[in-house]
Write a structure and sequence with these properties.
single chain, mainly alpha, two-stranded antiparallel sheet
Length: 603
């Protein structure tokens, strides 16, 4: 009866407020006794009670910021609404904890009812922690989720959450960026418990690590957009500061096994690698924002950027570490995404060869993933962040700025660009299922491979004198493609029929098409090398138009701030000899007349 009414209907709100009042004022032992009676095997009523609590969270969201057409009593002004919001949700959290304590043992003999109850509990808690609340409410809600995880066990928790695990990760990461230290601490505590329990039960963190690293860019971008909506961002330094709490929380996640018994000694290095990768991913988000220019948030919002070039920047290292964290077999799209960002950074600096190498790493990732596309994990969009019918508070985002283009739709559009910014490499004829990003197909991935190879060759030629290196790289890529095709051809063939046989044929055809494209590019490079002429610039007879390399050794006193750094600048070891390619613009400089002059100019 109440569910049929609108979420802000006066009758529904009045009845649910009465329920919350009873839960708040009644003795806890009496409530616990009644809840236990709802777990009677003859008639389980606990699910109906959880649905009532779920209706409470849906109706009481209207207290966050009452819409103009609200049917709530008119004397509920904003001050009273804020008080009602906190008290009502706090009471619902307490009732949830009572349900967990009272029913965990009574339902263990009835697996179906236990799973049904746990699903209702987790859905209720997810709605609470997603809603903007006071720090007290968030503490109680995350504490309830932590209690549920410990009482029911990680196996049942993972089984029930299923695809919603990525949404839990999104919400916990968002709470780790909270301005309240207590909320950040309990969010980190929940994630440590989840990580430790999963490692002790399953022996690895591959799925959870992939989930965290995949949705982290979206969470970071959403937090930045929300800070901008509230007009907290004036310059690019403010952008970096807006995700500083999240960075600090990720450091706290890397705990010490001697201090925390939830962290296995063998888990510690895995957790350290995950935390480093997450820090690199946040760096990558900031790099992508810098590449967008000073109007990356909203069309009329100009963010002042610092144009000073940093001598010792680590953009390339951060992007490379972010890309290397993902495996081609499970996360090829995320790996390609960061390599593409690395390519853009090199292009902005005029480093054409490095940009071409980044594209070839994308191409190699595609070839390594072609045989595993069916098992590639794909994220989905979080409906509680996008659907105002399920989350009524979304309409209040951006109301303070009084600008319609800064509402939740603009925030989500901005965040979606960072979930997966590159073009969808899947069958566009198939509609998306449950907001999940579509699976990449072999034909689309091979088309992307051909595109990357052509762009890489153009970048090699733009530098000049690098035909031999480009030829060697493409030849290695061609051998890899031949091995992939041979592996598929030599694999035991099943009696495919219908759609399966057609899909197998399309995959083989896509790989052969990619090999033909690679052959065409290699042939073009061969012709250019055969027609190469000596470079006869004025006074430059000693050089041919080809790659020139130099020995490089960094020496001297290392600045104190770089004492702990191993590689500065990027990929160069201190006091170790390295071989570096000299850019063609240095060689072509008319003021240089000797090899020593070229080395001096390069230095």
């Amino acid at each position: 009866w109440l569910a049929r009414m609108g979420a802000t209907h006066r009758v529904r709100s009045t009845w649910l407020l009465c329920l919350v009042y009873i839960l708040q004022e009644a003795p806890e032992h009496l409530i616990s006794s009644i809840v236990r009676s709802y777990c009677d095997p003859r008639e389980f009523k606990i699910h109906k009670f959880l649905r009532l609590l779920r209706l409470c969270t849906s109706s009481f969201q209207s207290f966050l910021d009452r819409p103009l057409d609200s049917k709530l009593p008119p004397y509920l002004d904003k001050g009273l609404s804020a008080w009602l919001l906190q008290e009502s949700f706090n009471t619902v959290c307490v009732a949830t904890n009572v349900v967990v304590d009272a029913c965990v043992g009574l339902t263990s003999s009835y697996p179906h009812e236990e799973r049904k109850m746990l699903q209702g509990l987790l859905d209720l808690l997810l709605h609470i922690v997603t809603t903007p609340q006071s720090s007290v409410t968030h503490l109680r809600a995350v504490g309830g989720a932590l209690q549920t995880l410990e009482k029911f066990g990680v196996e049942l928790f993972i089984e029930i959450t299923g695809t919603n695990l990525q949404h839990w990760v999104r919400v916990v990461l968002s709470l780790m960026n909270s301005t309240s230290m207590a909320v950040r601490s309990i969010a980190v505590d929940f994630l440590v418990s989840l990580v430790g329990s999963m490692y002790n039960t399953y022996g690895n963190l591959s799925e959870l690590s992939l989930t965290i690293a995949s949705v982290l860019p979206e969470v970071a971008a959403r937090e930045i957009a929300l800070f901008s909506v509230h007009d907290h961002i004036k310059c690019f330094d403010d952008v970096a500061k807006s995700v500083w709490p999240l960075r600090r929380s990720l450091v706290d996640l890397d705990g010490n096994p001697l201090d925390d018994d939830r962290i296995d000694p063998q888990l510690s290095p895995i957790l350290s690698g995950l935390c480093r990768a997450c820090q690199a991913i946040i760096d990558g988000v900031l790099v992508e924002l810098r590449l967008k220019g000073n109007r990356f948030l909203f069309p009329d919002k100009k963010v002042l950027s610092n144009d000073e070039t940093l001598v010792f920047d680590a953009d390339e290292e951060s992007l490379y570490e972010a890309a290397s964290f993902f495996l081609p077999e499970t996360g090829p799209m995320q790996r390609i995404r960061w390599f593409m960002t690395l390519r853009l950074v090199h292009e902005k600096k005029g480093q054409w060869i490095e940009a071409a190498e980044a594209l070839l790493m994308c191409s190699r990732t595609i070839l390594d993933s072609v045989r595993h596309l069916k098992y590639v994990w794909r994220p989905s969009k979080f409906l509680l962040w996008t659907d105002s019918r399920r989350s009524h508070w979304l309409d209040s985002v951006g109301e303070e700025s009084s600008q319609p283009d800064r509402g939740n739709a603009a925030v989500i559009d901005f965040a979606d660009e960072f979930l997966e910014p590159i073009a969808t490499v899947s069958d566009t004829k198939k509609p998306p299922v449950t907001n999940k990003l579509q699976q990449p197909t072999a034909s689309a991935m091979c088309d992307l491979l051909c595109k990357f190879v052509k762009e890489a060759v153009q970048l090699y030629l733009r530098e000049g004198g690098m035909e031999e290196q480009a030829f060697a790289r493409l030849e290695m890529l061609q051998r890899t493609a031949m091995n992939v095709l041979e592996d598929q051809s030599s694999a035991p063939r099943m009696p495919f029929r219908g759609a399966a046989a057609r899909k197998r044929f399309e995959e083989d055809a896509a790989l052969r098409k990619a090999m033909v494209s690679l052959g065409v590019e290699i042939t073009g490079l061969t012709e250019r090398m055969d027609l190469g002429e000596p470079f006869m610039g004025p006074g430059r007879n000693f050089l041919r138009k080809q790659a020139v390399y130099a020995f490089l050794r960094l020496s001297g006193k290392k600045p104190p701030r770089f004492e702990e750094s191993v590689a500065l600048p990027c990929f160069l070891e201190w006091r170790e000899i390295s071989i570096c390619r000299i850019p063609q613009w240095v060689v072509d400089n008319e003021e240089v007349s000797s090899l020593q002059g070229i080395c001096s100019r390069f230095a």
